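Lab notebook, bench 4. The sequencing result for the construct came back, and we need a structural model before the next group meeting so we can plan mutations. Quick request posted to the team channel:

Model the 3D structure of this chain.
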Amino acid sequence: MEELLANSVVVKNNRSNSLINRKMILRILGILLHLEGVMLLVCMGVSLAYGEAAYQSFGYSALTTMAVAFLFQFLGKGGDNSISRRDGYCIVAFSWMLFTVFGMLPMLLSGEIPAVTDAFFETMSGFTTTGATILDDIESLSHGMLFWRCFTQWIGGLGIVFFTVAFLPIFGLGNQVLFSAEATGVNHDKIHPKISVMAKWLWTLYLLLTASCGLLLMAGGMEPFDAVCHAFTTAATGGYSTKQDSIAYWNSPFIEYVIAIFMVLAGVNFTLYFKCLKGQFSHLLQNDEVKFYLGTVVGITLACTLSLYLFNHYGAEEAFRKAFFQVASIFSSCGYATDDYVQWAPFTWLLLVYLMLAGGCTGSTCGGIKSMRVLIILKNMRNEFSRLIHPRAVLPVKVNHQAVPTATISTVSTFILCYVGCLFLGWLALMVMGVGFVESFGVAVSSLGNTGPAFGQFGPAYSWNALPMAGKWLSSFLMLIGRLEIFGILLMFVPSFWHKR
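Done. Here's the predicted structure in token form:
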């Protein structure tokens, strides 16, 4: 803490009282864009391997991205190496925007998605792991473009900046600041004192989860290319598929169960998996958030299974499989589909809306409010009822046998209020644009929760191509603030954030 305070003093002295270290921000953004350029070159290699003309689009996009990266690094020369909390928020917000802008170049240059609005939407949906698409014929895309869509989700799963911290640990003391600005959830369990080492371990676990999923999908009959792409988007809980019919294309119970299980696994806090590797299984088995998360999966799966069996006349096994898959997909904010839940009994829609809002565990690749926040609010509500009967009782909110600080409860309450506020404003704005009542609500919930499919004509059986142009830009914005937990982006619109003292 003393080191960070001293660092803040240096920052103030070296920036002429400016709150923003512009040169350091440009330098780091340049480094991040170099990373995206390498990603584009990988996709160029995929296109070359399949003999597709799209390799040229990826090559030109990579050159353009790296040219801008060099420019940013040149403009960032001579700045001090300190990163404040404000700098961290700027770097994270701008990096996600820049990755989307340069990430859409291959789609535009190849003509596979010729409209800027559609290309931006598709790329933002990819990096934020939302999975909503404007494409009505996904299989018409080149292999390189299909791979790029899935690759964007895999990189965005644990975070663009977090990936760079893991493999390019060059930010020094700024690692902690950048991690805090991008990481999601109520708290962040540290598995190692150095953030860069922690990032390496988490990305290693992420790789293992991805590889395991891919191998099982190949064992289930998927072609290697499809298996790799779906392993990327399953581990990232992104939901992009190489087929227009998503997972239903294969009509394979084995593949459906594999992906459903891995979606649930991807919704668990990754730091708990690391502790399991060290033999500390009790951390996973006794974790309150995990028990709440898995209990929700089981409870809502059984409710939907019963509904499908009684009202939709599915067989028992099929009803369970379809219910389990869609619950896992929605709750983990993955967005795959094997069935059109719009055709299910209406009461199940409300259960699925709750899953869209709640999301998986903190420290996972899921979107939404996060189960930890929901758990804290529910326990606090229970205590408020108890205080009506015992007004002098001291009733702390406990999670994992530890009392949750009052400040954390206040922050959680504020976050949920802001989340609902953004949801309502997005819903209202979409209706003003002419989108239907149910469809507007579904798009707002799905975009903010990074889920993918919504309701009505934007349900799992349809693309989002029918959204008006302004609706696509609004939805893209909701995806971004949902992925970066609202505060980090909305802070950019507060005038005092940019003022000099």
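Residues 1-14 have pLDDT under 50 and may be disordered.
Will bring this to the meeting.
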